[in-house]
Every structure is written in C-alpha cells, then in structure tokens.
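Morning run. Coffee first, then this:
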Amino acid sequence: MLIPQQVAVGPEWVGPVTAISLAVMATALVALVGGVLLTLMKLQGPLERLNELLQGIQGDVGETLGNVRRLTEQGQDVLAVVRQEAGSYAQAGRRLRRQVLRGADRIQSRLQDLEALYEVVHEEVEDTALDVAAALRSVRSGNGMLGRVRRLLVPARR
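And here it is:
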C-alpha cells in the first residue's frame, strides 16, 4: 500500500533568493578574508622591523644590565674599602686619644712634681737669703767671724 505523501510546495522565489544570499555571503566572506590577508601582508614588513628593533633593544638592555651588575659590584668593593678605611681612622683616633690622655696625665703629674720642687727651692732660697742678710749685718757690725779672723791674723797695735 502506498501512502500518498503530501509535499508542500512553497513559493518558487525562496530557492533562488536563498542561493543568491548564500553566494553574496560567501563573496563577502572571501572579500573579508582577502582584506585580512592583504592587511597582514602589509603589516609583515613593519612587524619584522619592529621585531629587529625589539631584539636590538633586548640586547642593549642585557648589556646595560650587565654593566649595572658590574657597577654594583664595584660599588660594593668601594663601600668595603671605605668601611675598612673608616674603621682604621676610628681605631687610629681612639689610639691617639688614649696617647693624648696618657700624655696629659703625665704632664699633670710632672707639673705637680715641679710645683713641689719649686716650693722646696723657694723655701731654700728664702732661707739662704735670710742667712746671707744675717751674715751681711754681722759683717757690717764687725762682730762677725771676719772680725775675729782679722784680730787673730793682724797683731794689735800697742
């Protein structure tokens, strides 16, 4: 048995319009892809130059970083030398300060000794001056030792 099939027949313009729209869309897609490819081909040269420039910059940056590392190492070496020299100057300053303080202490003790010596010498000079003055007084009066010696040596006149 055969079952009759019903086939719906639609308007006849739908098929050709669909085909034409598909052709237009395919043409637009081909044009779009062609435009993208053309743009990419035009950008290829500048992109290559930009790539070369970036590689050159990368080399320069690497070289600069190497120089900065070497400069940092030299700076650390200089800093170590400066620290060592500053420590040496500080140590020399401490040593010199100790020597100056010891010298000042010795000078002070010697000044005290000198002052004591001056007092003793002063007293001796005063005593000697008083003895000389007393001797001169007794010489003037004639009752001194010289008068006695003279009387013994010189005969008396009679």
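Helices lie at 14-141, 145-153. Good start to the day.
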